[in-house]
Amino acid sequence: MRGKIHDNSSSLSNLKPLVKRLTEIKKQAEAIGLFTDDRELLECTCGLIEDIAFDGRLFTCRKNDHAFKDTGLRFIKVNENIFCCPECKTKLKVELL
Ligand SMILES: [Zn+2]
Asked: 15 in a domain, yes or no?
């Protein structure tokens, strides 16, 4: 009878294609404008805020707009945790989740 051998290296290599696939899916989701939930939503001092639509798309609206109408503007990614407001050009630091 064979004993159970814990071979961590082989189970890790089994996961590799899966992790690679997940990374690709995440990239595709970002490319079509879906929010991938890896950072906080942005809120600028000028009143432009980010929100997520029912279909998962990220959009921006005015903080005082109770209809949450999409302004069509998008915060510009400067680097991993800095975004630039498309309206007033304020640089916003975002907390990565
Ligand atoms: Zn702004």
From this structure: yes
CB 57 within 8 A of CB 36: no
Q: What is the distance between the alpha carbons of residues 42 and 55, in angstroms, rounded to a whole number?
A: 19
Q: From the CA of 54, how far away is ligand 1's center (Å)?
A: 24
At residue 46, what is the residue type? Answer: C
85 CA → ligand 1 middle, Å: 5
pTM score of the predicted model: 0.68
pLDDT in tens, 2-46: 556 666 666 778 899 999 999 999 888 888 888 877 788 999 999
Residue 2 lies in a domain: no
Torsions phi, psi of 57, nearest 5?
Answer: -80, 145
- Give dist(CA 8, CA 28) in Å, integer: 30
* Ligand 1 centre distance from Cα of residue 97 (Å): 22
- On whether both 21 and 41 belong to a single domain, the answer is no
